[in-house]
Design a protein that fits this description.
The protein is of the alpha+beta class. It has one domain (3-284). 35% of the residues lie in helices and 14% in strands. The protein has helices spanning 3-18, 46-55, 62-69, 91-98, 106-132, 162-168, 223-227, 240-258; strands at residues 37-42, 81-88, 137-138, 148-151, 155-158, 173-174, 180-181, 188-195, 233-234, 237-238. The strands form 4 sheets. Strands 1-2-8-3 form a 4-stranded antiparallel beta sheet, with helices on both faces. A two-stranded antiparallel sheet has the order 4-5. Helix 1 (3-18) runs antiparallel to helix 5 (106-132). 45% of the residues are buried. The structure holds iron/sulfur cluster (2 copies). One iron/sulfur cluster is lined by residues 175-177, 213-215, 221-224, 272-274, 279.
């Protein structure tokens, strides 16, 4: 591990470990996230060009995002690094949501709203930390460049995906329900920053984008199909429109029952074999 690699990891770890910002903002002042995982990918990784071809021309590569943000910096894709992280939900958030069948538990809904605010603060923190080291950095999700498009093939799709950056950065593979299965499971949130620095990319210890999902490894699973309250997951995958409609419908429930503006579901991320680990056949029994 280089000094740069270690410093960036430490930035993410110390924020989640020590910052009072890491909170669900509930009475118990629970932390939003447990110890993160951090990975790196090079800006010239062919996967980013593949995403552009596969997802659509609107999808931005790390170089495109960096160059649009810093037009005066003349740089090649290989001089960029994508720093990606995984923030695992705390056990109480997961165990509460395991008990739910339709609407999110309060902690889960808080993690969706206040947890994502923690993630945004972490994005800012990493950008500021990298700039403090003398480099330029941008968090695509916080950039005005970030947009959502209606795509004929994938439905609503954005021009940067935290999960795709995490996949490229060796942090996990996709499940049948589209969530990213990491070594800390799928009950997680992801974040990333693009910077003009060079760090050794994290090795991808998998041989395909569904490698960690039991449904795709000749084993029956499909527990996320059963968990979805609105039939948004099937053997053909994830129906984003059905899912989005259900998320919208949870807004009223969250407001009435938990007293804040929020939403969430996460049934397919909890009480499933891939919730907190890379699942094995044994987890099906
Ligand atoms: S619950 Fe089973 S089928 Fe669904 S993503 Fe997890 S491992 Fe794959
Ligand atoms: S988030 Fe909820 S509605 Fe959406 S796919 Fe998962 S279980 Fe279904």
């Amino acid at each position: 591990m280089t000094d740069l690699d270690a410093s960036i990891r430490a930035m993410v770890f110390s924020f989640i470990q020590d910052s009072p910002e890491n909170t669900l903002k509930n009475q118990a002042n629970d932390r939003a996230f447990e110890e993160p995982i951090v990975g790196f990918s090079n800006g010239n990784d062919p996967l980013y060009q593949f995403y552009k071809r596969d997802i659509g021309e609107f999808y931005l590569t790390p170089l495109e995002i960096f160059s649009k943000t810093f037009p005066v910096v003349n740089i090649g894709a290989s001089e960029l690094t994508v720093v990606s992280w995984i923030l695992p939900h705390i056990e109480k958030t997961k165990s509460d949501n395991r008990e739910q069948t339709t609407y999110p538990s309060e902690r889960w809904a808080r993690a969706r709203i206040y947890g994502e605010q923690v993630n945004d603060k972490l994005r800012d923190h990493v950008v500021a930390g990298i700039k403090g080291m003398g480099f330029e950095a941008v968090a695509p999700m916080l950039s005005p460049i970030w947009k959502v498009y209606e795509d004929s093939r994938y439905g609503r799709a954005s021009n940067w995906s935290e999960r795709h950056a995490a996949y490229a950065s060796g942090l996990g593979t996709f499940g049948l329900c589209d969530g990213l299965i990491t070594r800390k499971g799928k009950a997680v949130r992801c974040g990333s920053v693009v910077a003009n620095l060079k760090v050794q990319p994290t090795e991808r210890l998998y041989d395909g984008h569904h490698a960690y999902c039991l449904f795709f490894s000749n084993v029956t699973c499909g527990r996320c199909i059963q968990r979805c309250p609105v039939g948004a997951i099937s053997e053909s995958g994830h129906d984003k429109n059905k899912c989005r409609k259900h998320l919208k419908a949870t807004e009223e429930f969250v407001k009435e029952n938990y007293g804040f503006e929020g939403y969430g579901c996460g049934m397919c991320q909890t009480d499933v074999p891939c919730e907190s680990k890379i699942p094995t056949e044994r987890d099906l029994h």
